[in-house]
Design brief:
four-stranded antiparallel beta sheet, three-stranded mixed beta sheet, 3 helices, 7 strands
């Protein structure tokens, strides 16, 4: 299981990557848990932001909607060891896609 901690609503597309490299530290406050949704469910969602983010993802991908979170969010992705992460819509949606390393 992967844990991702990122600040919601940031326009800095490097903020998520920096959290794993330059700035990795425990959050100042308690993070808000965000439950990911599967790409197949997101593609049929009423929410156009989730539909757009999921459109090009494989079915096994997961998305976390960070829009309702004002501070630090905690997302647990139940995926294989290797994943690729991306942020969509100005950092509002976090995606995780299983990756075999190649």
């Amino acid at each position: 299981m992967h844990q991702a901690v990122a600040e919601a609503g940031t326009e800095d597309t490097n903020a998520f990557g920096a959290a794993f490299t330059d700035r990795w530290c425990e959050p100042a406050g308690d993070p808000v848990p965000v439950t990911p949704v599967g790409a197949t469910d997101a593609r049929s969602s009423d929410d156009p932001v989730l539909r757009d983010a999921a459109a090009g993802l494989p079915d096994e991908a997961l998305l976390a909607d960070l829009r309702p979170v004002a501070g630090v969010a905690e997302v647990l992705f139940d995926l294989p060891v290797s994943c690729r992460y991306a942020r969509w819509h100005g950092g509002a949606v976090l995606t995780a896609v299983p990756w075999d390393g190649e």
